[in-house]
Amino acid sequence: MRMTENDAAGVETPDSGAMSWEERESAQAAAYDAIGDRYDEAFPHKDGQIGMVERLLPDLPPGARVLDLGCGTGTPTTRQLVDGGCRVTGTDISPRMLEVAKRNVPEARFLLRDMVDLDPERETYDAVVSCFSLLHLTRDRIPVVLDLVRRALVPGGRFGLAMVEADVDDAPIPFLGQTLRVTGYFRDELRGMLHSAGFTVEHERTLSYAPASTQARPEIQIFMICGNGEERGTA
Ligand SMILES: C[S@@+](CC[C@H](N)C(=O)[O-])C[C@H]1O[C@@H](n2cnc3c(N)ncnc32)[C@H](O)[C@@H]1O
């Protein structure tokens, strides 16, 4: 996902400030509906997020309840979590991505839902993961969702986050023939924001990544595993 340099050049799209949140999100969902299976073809190598989940799994209790926010096609993360013995709920705003995810990971439960609607009063998890999905929100919504995620975690719960390093807010970018809106941070800023939301960053890794289908310069992907600042069993 190219989020830097001149990605926004030549992309004709309304200022999202002029749209309601629902309009913005239905445009994002429609873009991912059109992308569907092609997402996995364009991004066949997902070593960073696979490594992050490998590191996360041993910290989770048997049969852990895990929320995969913006699960996309379910490959590889929902599948990896299910194979690791977790009971996984995948949520996404794109009906088409969820259709593919249900086919790829029939053992998981899937919900068509915007991540801003996560309800910590009604659902709790041993872990939440968000692989390159939080980056589709805006800088004003990301801290709100981080707060929801932290409150939805049991004491000692873990949050696995994958982002692209970039200094942008709600920037339109061309992506596999569609226009998507993305937000990014420099890693120090991202770390600071996680701390402010009450997380402790326990593990951090950065990787240089170039999608198979482009000649573009690599982008920097950031992977963080965070605790929610509480010990397991202290609630
Ligand atoms: C870059 S893809 C990543 C998919 C998957 N997590 C992976 O790593 O392969 C981003 C996904 O987030 C979903 N998404 C974007 N905005 C969302 C939102 N507000 N709530 C839930 N899902 C969202 C998109 O539909 C898409 O499936």
Automatic annotation (TrEMBL):
Record InterPro entries: Methyltransf_25, SAM-dependent_MTases_sf
Region (Disordered): 1-25
SUPFAM superfamilies noted in UniProt: S-adenosyl-L-methionine-dependent methyltransferases
CDD domains: AdoMet_MTases
UniProt key word Disulfide bond: no
Entry keyword set: Methyltransferase, Transferase
Gene3D superfamilies per the UniProt record, alphabetical: Vaccinia Virus protein VP39
GO BP: methylation
Methyltransferase domain location: 66-157
A molecular-function term among this protein's GO annotations: methyltransferase activity
Name of the protein described by the UniProt record: Methyltransferase family protein
Protein's organism: Haloactinospora alba
